[in-house]
Amino acid sequence: MRAMVYRGPYKIRVEEKDVPRIEHPNDAVVRVTRAAICGSDLHLYHGMMPDTRVGTTFGHEFVGVVEEVGPSVRTLSPGDRVMVPFNIYCGSCWFCARGLYSNCHNVNPNATAVGAIYGYSHTCGGYDGGQAEFVRVPFADVGPTVVPEWMDDEDAVLLTDALATGYFGAQLGDIVEGDVVVVFGAGPVGLYAAKSAWLMGAGRVIVIDHLEYRLEKARTFAHAETYNFVEHDDIVVHLKRITDHLGADVAIDAAGAEADGSFMQHVTAAKLKLQGGSPIALNWAIDAVRKGGTVSVIGAYGPMFSAVKFGDALNKGLTLRMNQCPVKRQWPRLFEHIRNGYLKPSDIVTHRIPLEHINEAYHIFSAKLDGCIKPLIVPNAA
After folding, report:
1. In the listed set 322, 349, 368, which residue is the last one of a domain according to the structure?
2. Region 365-379: what's the mean pLDDT?
3. Residues spanned by the domain of 195
């Protein structure tokens, strides 16, 4: 089969690999019909995630058709159209029993630190991902779900991470009616977090970024008030000024490890690898939220420490909430919102690129070229 293969930082290509096989009675093999490139895939592409091995296939956002199932699989059959959450989880451990699917204890040798994710380095279990023609899906009775008949693949694939994570970010904010919510980062997850904040009762939603085309999308897709941080000497002071000098009730960090806005943070994180990621957006969130407010973190960071302003968070009495999204837990409510017309996930898709040209897709997405917000990969389009 044809699959995206990692060859080192900024080096990927499409190669022939063996079609995955059933390795355990609970496995399925899925023929991928749509995959996506996530902003967090860029952390791998840029060489920021430890133990990303040459030969790995990325891709934790994908949907497809079941090709084969193991003898123990009961809920799926060959031919089923399925959506697969980015979390790999057993469904029966202490954490899974409490809905903490992203913290499963049975699927990753590094499970005390992180759960397992498709195509996201050996730090996250070493599973190949879905930027390929086929992918092996462990615990096939647990994670995947048959895509509802009324939902198309391009909406479904965005439910496997980006939309679910954005919605989860707003949930972590514990938004109450009338709250002022500020979202740092106007990428796909930030756009969905802003849109979700309205659904949870926010009275004002503000999005911060430095890319004008993404801020324009935040205005048209998420109906948010937007500010470009490069146009202000201090974006935190500006946010205080426009929120009665109190600060926002809720701040959501949807930017994560590669946030722009601080040369020093960028160099120590992205270039020198001295931090698990640049925490500039998280520090802005801590400073921009009011005393007693809530900071939600859904942007991805590596396992190393980062220079976070923890003292400010303590002295302001903030609530900090964060986790990798337990994707499947979000689906029932998101299905309702989509079916009722409140959300159209694929409205943020800007590029559809054949698998054969995935190296170009990574370059466009990484360099923020051609107005790119969310690229999808089409395995059978070559």
Report:
1. 322
2. 97
3. 168-322
